[in-house]
Amino acid sequence: MLSIFFIGKLNQTNATISDSLSSGVECNITFIDPAEFNTIPAIKNFRSLAICDLSTIPGNPTDSVRTIREIIADIPLLAMHRYLDMRFIQPVMEAGANGYISSTPAEKDLIEAVQKIAAGQDYIGTDSAL
Q1: Over 80: is that where the pLDDT of 126 sits?
Q2: Cβ distance 9 to 34 under 8 Å?
Q3: Residue 82 clears pLDDT 60, i.e. is over it
Q4: Contacts of 84 (CB under 8 A, 6+ apart)
């Protein structure tokens, strides 16, 4: 079973994403508010996967990924954002994300992304402009 922590605001979209993941992948999901991310020591003990909704984290998405990577360097990281053009995706991937999908992904893309990233592969969503 995957232990996933989801860095982002718990809103209707992210709740739907969580439900989709739970129905398609055997996992346990823990939501972490971006404002509290740096203060939770247990994060460093997670070993499966992290998902970050960059649309709900204030500031520059690339800088947010770098900050996350300073705290959890060895955990696969799936970034989500509304921008789907490679000129936005590439810097996020270079900053340390293992994958990138839309912040409103199709369930199929979401599950595929999580499975591939958990298996050690990189992933860019099919709805991204390559």
Answers
A1: no
A2: yes
A3: yes
A4: 102, 125, 127, 128, 129
Tokens of 129: 């402009």
- Tokens representing 106 are 């199709």
Instruction: Dig out the tokens for 11 from the structure.
Output: 């809103």
Burial of 86 (0-12, 13-18, 19+ CB in 10 A): middle
Q: In what order do the strands lie in the sheet with 99-102?
A: 27-32, 2-7, 49-53, 77-81, 99-102, 123-124
CA distance 51 to 125: 14
Q: What is the pLDDT of residue 52?
A: 95
- Percent of the chain past pLDDT 90, that is, above it, reads 42
